[in-house]
Amino acid sequence: MTIPCVMLRCKVSKAKSAFTLLEVMIASAIFFMAVFAILALVSSNLRNARLLQEQTVNAGILIADYCQTNKLEEGPDHGDFGQLYPGYKWDSDTVLVSSNGLFKVDYLVTHPGGHGERTSINSLSALLFRPDSPTSPGFR
User: Fold this and answer.
1) Which end of the chain has fewer CB atoms < 10 Å from its terminal CB, N or C?
2) What's the pTM?
3) Every domain of the chain and the residues it spans
4) What is the 3-state secondary structure (H, E, C) of 48-65?
5) High-pLDDT (> 70) share of the chain, %
6) β-pairing, 75-80 with 102-112?
């Protein structure tokens, strides 16, 4: 029994038209290098966009610092954020609410506006219980 020549050519031509394992691995490597290069570019662009955004100051960091103290005193206070947030300033007012050591602390964060005026950015109030703090002599 002899196989016609036409059938052999078809099988041989089908085998030659397929990709080899080496070609598939090289193509996959090139594809993944391109994908990772694009992902690195997108990641760096997102990081740069975050750095360009204006940082907003939250008065919560001031209250968190104030909560660490054991004693509070009535009266106003003010300060700035130094190099952390240049140009931003804060004002606080501490008031004794009750003779048992309950204080109300109000914070106001400001930033210079366009015409030299200070614009209010954030305000926050907190009640803090500090029984070891000195009370006002006239408070009852």
Assistant:
1) N
2) 0.54
3) 5-52, 60-129
4) HHHHHCCCCCCCHHHHHH
5) 79
6) unpaired
